[in-house]
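To the team - fructose -6-phosphate complex, inputs and output below.
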Amino acid sequence: MCGIFGCVLKNGDAAPLIHAALKRLEYRGYDSVGEAIIHEGKLYVKKDAGKIDDVHALLNLDDLPGKIGIGHTRWATHGAPYKVNAHPHTDCKEELAVIHNGIIENFAELRKELEDRGHILRSKTDTEVIAHLIEEKLKEGLGLIDSVRKSITRLEGSYSIAVISAKEPDKIVCARNESPLVLGISEDAVFCASDIPAFLPLANKVVIVENGELVVLNHKGYEIRKLADWSLVSRQPKIIDWNPVMAEKQGYPHFMLKEIYEQPKTIRNTLRLQDQYLELMTAFLDRAGEVSLVACGTSYHACLAASYMFSKLAFLATHPIIASEFIEQHGRAVNIDSTILFVSQSGETTDTLAAVEHARLRAATVLGLTNVIGSTITRVARVYTCQQSGPEIGVAATKTFTSQLSVLAQLALRLAKKRGKVSHTEIEFLEEKLEQIPDVAEALLKTQSEKIRQLSKKYRDKGCFFFLGRGISYATALEGRLKLLEIAYIPSIAYPAGESKHGPISLIEPDFPVIFVCPKDGTHRTILSNIMEMKARGASIIAIIEEGDEEIKRFVDDYVEVPKGMPEILSPIVYVIPLQLFAYYMAIERELNPDMPRNLAKSVTVK
Ligand code: F6R
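Output:
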């Protein structure tokens, strides 16, 4: 995710201000930190891997003269969290510095092109190519603004960048495509940042930079231009009256809600994973006879959903296994021929790492999927891939779950292609649908949130909920159940709908709430029968349905509609969102803090 910050001051030194701003942006990433400042026509850079306080203790981030500077706090996506990969990145002559939030998809081609032309790239990041592209343009005789303008036309992907150069020491040039960029304005300074909290104690006048815009900051203020036609944009600042705590949550009352709403963006990032990571992982999966998928909690639910994806698309047998049971249940069966994909958002969950260690000792092939580059899983796995969700602060996993599913779906599709088990037309259709998920999630959040909030008012006093789904929707039901019980403290159960009549149906009495997850897939007809069974016993039915599913609407008490056309195999990525919101609003109705459920921790590091 990363946090960027830049400032042009009339008085005083930029360094202490940058340091303080980065502290306020630390929730966006904390793998490394760095700053670059221009003073008397020279560029000075300080950076290192580690948390801001640790790097400050080592380098004293406050101790640099100069009124213009930029700073960065990193959430690693390309390149491990080492000093060399920390931002700012510089050109060959170390005269200009760039900070970046986002993902440059075509960086490998650009890097090769630049290296062929003699540039020395020091890091493994996608960002560094930007510095060298700008250097090329400056060499051709263009000024800094035009050099940035021309260079970014070469970039594919998402970015917000800020650039300074010792050759033009009076300005910061920034630009935005998809990743956030805001300006802060005060009497004595102008700021650019990924997010408002960075400058909130210093400026409450805010200008939002839009996609496709370039901004120049200098002592006179700011100038915004549209990249498409270079026209001048006149945009007046807005006054923001958030306090610093509200600002960190971008105006949302809780991190959990902010993270639920971030999903269109985070899924989009996840769909931008580098080909080479996915290809390598697919190659390992392809040569395996069968694969174990090992994880805890929400990550286990992602594994369960993935087992349907791999089997249906790639005809690969995968076995989802709860990490804390792995050694007892399968320990002796693990050997040199085993392939095991470990899924852990944090990459540090003790139960998962114990299973990893066991697998390594028995010479199994260990693969990893995590959100934290540099975590233990990334260090010990033979191959790992990162999900690129950015830090998740709410204890309950939300955006990291939908990103895990999005990575696993990409892997299943690649494997399907490689194995030629399903038709090209079907694969292309699914790839297209996967690309549409961020928009579908956005539409869902826009149209259904209020309805879900009202449902939470209606059902707030219920003592138990029953979640049911068939096929891949069983995983969605389990995840909906986990969210509700962990943050609203409502004991709840989830079952595959077909299994419900083998025992749990005895719980049903009039008005007992049953939540059905029912996308319009191959299980639709049968799930309708399960709804009827519950209805006949007086249950109150809430159904998560496809928009316009009149057949189901007729029989249920309440429903939430998901935009049409989501294929079965991708449905959990979207159908879980109403359940996340339901759990959130139930916690609010019950006056609980959803960000800090009792007895739980974000990263569980005990057995
Ligand atoms: C639930 C939740 C936990 C985690 C579990 C595994 O909302 O967050 O169930 O999913 O502790 O954590 P990771 O994925 O970090 O291994």
